[in-house]
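Ticket #4471: structure export looks truncated?
Reporter: QA, pipeline team
Priority: medium

Steps to reproduce: submit the single chain below to the structure queue and open the exported record.
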Amino acid sequence: MARKKSTLTKVPLIAAELLGLGLSFYLILISLGLLHGGVAPCPRGGIFACHSILTGDFSKIGPIPIALLGVIYFSFSLVMTLIQQKRDFLFWIKGAALVASLFFVAYLRAIEILWMKAICVWCWAVAFAALAQVYFAVPHFTPPLPKLTWGVRLGALLGTFVLFFAVSLGVAMMLPVDTKHDRADRILKAATEATKAAPTQIAQPVATPVKNQSPAAVSTPQANATVTPAPAKPAAVSVAQYDFPENEMTPEHMELKDRGWRVVTSGKAVEQAMGGKPLLMLTFDSDCKECQALIHGALRGKALDSVDVQKFAIEGMLLRGTLSDLVHNVPTLMLFDTKGNVIFKHEGRMGEAELVRALNNALALGAGG
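Actual output as written to the record:
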């Protein structure tokens, strides 16, 4: 009877560990590119950056993905919960692992907010599973832990998590770390400085054409002609000011540049370039495996040169405003017509011939419409 009661008290703990194991296994499949093309589903909005966090600077400890550590930890915990019947050495090892896991998830969430300045909902889900695991495990360590009501236990758990979180923030603030967000800030700062340093384009006066004159006569200013300013053409100058700095380029940036893409630091460059030829925009992330496969695959070939479009590329972390609302995952290819309407959109990788065919079809349909 006592054994049956002990087994029943383990059910919530087993459920929490299964949840953590399932989430960690799901994330490791994504990181290996076996699910969703290596891009985790994520809510829309500026504060969410699931993919960047799951593949960024802090997604691994050395060569080991943190998601894999989660799989190992929750697997160990689950096995211990199922087979453990007495308080031996392994029992106390699991107790130490519970405390370590609580600190580790607090640390990861601290650096996510401090350095990444974004939120990964999947990471917080794993953190919730770890908190639930500790909550349901506490009664199994009584004594030496005191017997607590559910409310006091919850308060103590959250208080400990907040304490670990605060300590992690303090430690993180003292560490010199160069993150993706820092890199984005540097790139945007360089673009801003380039904009300030660039000479202002001054419109030149031109003569108003006189009726019934020949083209040759029109091109020559008349003595009594009314002089009006020519339409300003800031786009060409402004777009150049948003060019991606070469000292920050990765092999993906260099590949795109070599193939005739304009790699920019702001969506403003794309918006200002619209209205001429149709425009193809690539949104990517240098760390994204699907992005790398697309850039070094379909976009590397020469067949795309036959499609008469402007080609712009921008990293997802630099995209803001209206264009950002159109991009949910990376890589994303979007083709805009001369009026700025999206006439083709594709997420993920695709073959070179398939891409060229899709673009030509979209352009033909757009011209027909």
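Status: closed, not a bug. The export was complete when the record was re-opened. Leaving a note from the reviewer for reference: The longest strand covers residues 279-284.
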